[in-house]
Amino acid sequence: MADPNNPVPLAYQATAAGGASPDWLNKGDNAWQLTASTLVGLQCVPGLVILYGSIVKKKWAINSAFMSFYAFACVLICWVTWAFKMSFGEKLLPIWGKAGPALSQNYLLQQAFLPATDTGEVPALALLYPQATVVYFQFVFAAITLILIAGSLLGRMNFLAWMLFVPLWLTFSYTIGAFSLWGGGFLFQWGVIDYAGGYVIHLSSGVAGYVAAYWVGPRLESERRSFPPNNVLLTMAGAGLLWLGWNGFNGGAPYASNVIASMAVLNTNICAATSLLVWTSIDVIVFKKPSVIGAVQGMITGLVAITPSAGLVQGWAAMVIGVLSGSIPWYTMMILGKKPGGIFSKVDDTLGVFHTHAVAGSLGGILAGFFAQPTLSNLFLSVPGEHGAVYGGQKGGEQLGKQICAALFIIGWNVVVTSIICLLIKFIVPLRMSEEKLQVGDDAAHGEEAYALWGDGEKFDASKHSGTEYKEAQLASTKV
After folding, report:
1. DSSP at 349
2. How far is it, in rounded angstroms, from Cα 25 to Cα 129?
3. How far apart are CA 73 and CA 85, in angstroms?
4. How far apart are CA 47 and CA 241, in angstroms?
5. Residue 452 in 3-state DSSP?
6. Which of 96, 125, 26 is closest to 380 using CA atoms?
7. Nearest CA to 41 among 64, 62, 68, 60?
8. Total-model pTM
9. What is the pLDDT of residue 395?
10. Which of 199, 280, 272 is nearest to 242 (CA)?
């Protein structure tokens, strides 16, 4: 009951002892952090659910969307039960925090504190909102990483294998990268720059997806040759949610509604737009026509490449990064990726996640070592004096070396651990669906279909899709 002598509602009364509005709570920061978390969550559900469900062949729409939906729920339960503290809790090893639940009221309502982030020069991060806020914010980052991995495996992975893969990879791979680079581990202490997840999220998901795709095996050969999107307009809708959701991705990384957040949001959109335009322009020059799917890929590579440095570079540098992210991944995907007998033809990476996330993520991380601006870096990083190579001095060259070493660590860890996880799951359930299920798709895997429509992505052909023979074939198929 409110105090009749105090007209201020209980929700707004500040007390040194705590209550609904403790003295340390900054309502603006808390509101922004919860909003940013929701924006990143919307990238997952429904953003990537829609994008995956529409960019694949019609027979795989349900399965592809459901892989994202399942991962979002599974990661949350694992995150609050043990994985958050492994990523942001007390130090167990230089690469790992101590596991433990993040579920009690006393823990979740105390002031947010990341105990291992003390560098000696800057104290451990104490944030101006409850621990519950940072637990949820970091959860959506973990969730989207697993969902990105799914993009490499669409159209053939056994769903039961995916159900096992998600908690295992979260526990033994994601938490390692998160603690090492963000939670106070050895790369954090060394001063490696990964502003919002170019390495923790994108490089790791791109490499893990590619390695898992190798162990799972390819789609049907006919589907590797022809895998038309079932709804390009919905693909663009999912991509739009991904683009605008990235404002929460990079805007929330400073853990506060401050000037770095503003810089990050603007740079994110500058880089994404530049990359989209460059990718589309190259498509026009090489293939003589602009591609919507190509534009979406260019948008994604721009968003990924700016993520390691979004709040730490100037606007002109964001544009340069956009030019490179719209051209280098284009080359690896559209030229090297389609070369018969080439290295990328040996592994069936369904949506080219290696190119859009591993190549773009490592590119962005290395470019952070070039373009990180000294003043902006000091406003964000816990290791003072870090800056990019273009600003000169010994520090600049050292930073570039640190960025390369960190990328190699993330790549190496994910190659080994993802392989072990896949081999372990293989002893329990098959990694790949049976040939019979692959022929049918969603109906065989889930007993459901996305659309009650004719065709499988091909254009209307009156000789095939109308007349007595077609109707009889359709009737027969419903009786099977």
Report:
1. -
2. 5
3. 18
4. 5
5. coil
6. 125
7. 68
8. 0.91
9. 79
10. 272
At 15, give phi and psi (nearest 5°).
-135, 145
When the pLDDT of each residue in the chain is averaged and rounded to a whole number, the result is 91
pLDDT higher than threshold 50 for residue 137: yes
Q: Using DSSP, how many helices (H) and how many strands (E) does the chain show? A: 24, 6
Which tokens in the block code for residue 53? 């469900």
Nearest alpha-carbon partner for 242 in 54, 454, 467, 24: 54
347-353-354-358 Cα dihedral, nearest 10 degrees: -160
Contact 216, 432 (CB under 8 A): yes
The tokens describing 195, both together, are: 């502003």
Residue in this structure with the two tokens 């991060």, named with its chain if needed:
125
Position 475 pLDDT exceeds 90: no
Residue 478 confidence (pLDDT) above 70 = no
C-alpha torsion 421→425→426→427, nearest 10: 120
Q: How confident is the model over 12-60, as pLDDT tens digits?
A: 665 544 567 888 999 999 999 999 999 999 999 999 999 999 999 999 9
Which tokens sit at 113?
A: 């504190």
Among 273, 368, 358, smallest CA distance to 311 is for 368
Please name every residue paired with 130 in a beta bridge, in sequence order, or none if there are none. Answer: 111
453 has a pLDDT exceeding 80: no
Tokens 């470019």 belong to residue: 367
